[in-house]
Write a structure and sequence with these properties.
The protein is α/β, with parallel strands linked by helices and about 375 residues long. It contains 14 helices and 14 strands. The longest helix is centred in the C-terminal third of the chain and has 21 residues. The two termini are about 35 Å apart. The structure holds pyridoxal-5'-phosphate.
Length: about 375
């Protein structure tokens, strides 16, 4: 028997409670019974977004909400600034270009966080820019971007600040209204502890107003139509009923723990994973690490692709490797979602053992001991 642990930054592990909630028989979606669940979820999602606006639930993967942002609040030919510091930043630009927007790319090195003053300079220089797109966490590089600081620059200008919070919402605080974010999207299979298949999106008053004039085409991802339906506690098309039953349970779990405690737990685990990796001499890939996940370079001579495969297939522990220029060179370990202190120990222990199998010069237990020193705090030791 091989016991499996899913420690990749998405999809993340689904708690048993959520799985059982999803085992309920499917009920018809145009019923008072389902409408009550749907409306309750939509209302409670607002707490995670910290917004007074509607949070729209879409049946799609996270990219669906990204596409909805571009399709609903922008028009062909408009100029937008895209912060491209990895795969997902690049995706904002690709979606924008596929809708005929003119993309000004701000390309950053991998592992680099956005510099708010560079964004300010670009916006001061070019008043035609109608949108700024970035990630809260760029999952491909594990970088946390300074969303609050960028929002201070974008708010008050004639443009929308659009944030991909797919590995941000439910990981750390992103008070949408307070900071002045115009569009904030997220998805099910990361911090929300759900299987893939749901996406969430909220628009500020300014973004809804722009949506009234926007000319890009959309059909399935028509947010104004969804907003109208949500006012009647339903969705435009058949929603993913089963996943929404799971979402209700996941939101219960968030509420029972308290969102602040969710953020604290995730941050403590991030600190523990970093300490463990540091002790093993594995260098972090960024100076601006997110609490969502930890990315470290593997020792010279260790083939990351083989290491990740061995960890998954022989040890039963799934991590994420690197993408593109970091393929085979790094490993990414999740802290977001359904992760407890001892999952951190498993993550570091399995990594230590796999590294020694691949000939790295490490002393077994070093990383685990360092992680335990941090995790003690969570148990009041
Ligand atoms: C996972 C992820 C996405 C993509 O979401 P899908 O659900 O695969 O469509 C987009 N952005 C970020 C930051 C992510 O981590």
């Amino acid at each position: 028997m091989l016991k499996n642990y899913l420690l990749s930054p998405g999809p993340t592990a689904v708690p048993e409670r959520v799985l059982l909630a999803m085992a309920q028989p499917v009920i018809h979606h145009r019923t008072p019974q389902f409408s009550a669940v749907f409306a309750d979820c939509a209302k409670r999602l607002k707490k995670l977004w910290q917004t007074k606006e509607d949070v729209i639930i879409l049946s799609s993967s996270g990219t669906g909400a990204m596409e909805a942002a571009v399709a609903n609040s922008f028009s062909k030919g408009e100029k937008v600034l895209v912060i491209n510091s990895g795969k997902f930043g690049e995706r904002w630009g690709q979606i924008s270009e596929s809708f005929g927007l003119e993309v000004v790319w701000m390309k950053l090195g991998w592992g680099q966080a956005a510099d708010p003053s560079a964004i300010k300079a670009e916006l001061d220089k070019d008043p035609d820019i109608k949108g700024v797109f970035m990630q809260a966490t760029e999952s491909s590089t594990t970088v946390k971007h300074p969303i609050k600081e960028v929002a201070q620059i974008t708010r008050g200008r004639d443009l929308l600040f659009v944030v991909d919070g797919i590995t941000g919402v439910g990981v750390f605080e992103i008070p949408m209204d307070d900071w002045g974010i115009d569009i904030l999207v997220s998805g099910a299979q990361k911090a929300f502890m759900l299987p893939p298949g749901l996406a969430f999106i909220a628009l500020s008053e300014k973004a809804w107003k722009k949506a009234d004039e926007a000319k890009n085409s959309k059909f399935y991802l028509n947010l104004k139509k969804e907003k109208k339906n949500l006012a009647n506690n339903t969705s435009a098309y058949t929603p993913a009923v089963t996943l929404i039953n799971g979402l209700k349970e996941a939101l219960d779990m968030f509420e029972e723990e308290g969102l602040d405690n969710v953020y604290k737990r995730t941050a403590l685990h991030a600190k523990a994973v970093r300490a463990g990796c540091d002790a093993l001499g594995l260098k972090n890939v960024t100076d601006s690490p997110s609490e969502a996940m930890t990315g470290v370079y593997l020792p010279e001579g260790v083939d990351g692709n083989k290491l990740v495969k061995t960890l998954r297939d022989n040890f039963g522990v799934t991590y994420a490797g690197g993408q593109d220029e970091w393929k085979g060179k790094i490993i990414r370990i999740a802290q977001l979602g359904y992760i407890g202190a001892f999952d951190v120990i498993i993550a570091i222990s399995a990594l230590e053992m796999a590294l020694s199998k691949f000939g790295a010069d490490i002393k077994l237990g070093t990383g685990v001991a360092a992680a335990e020193e941090v995790l003690k705090e969570g148990f009041g030791i």
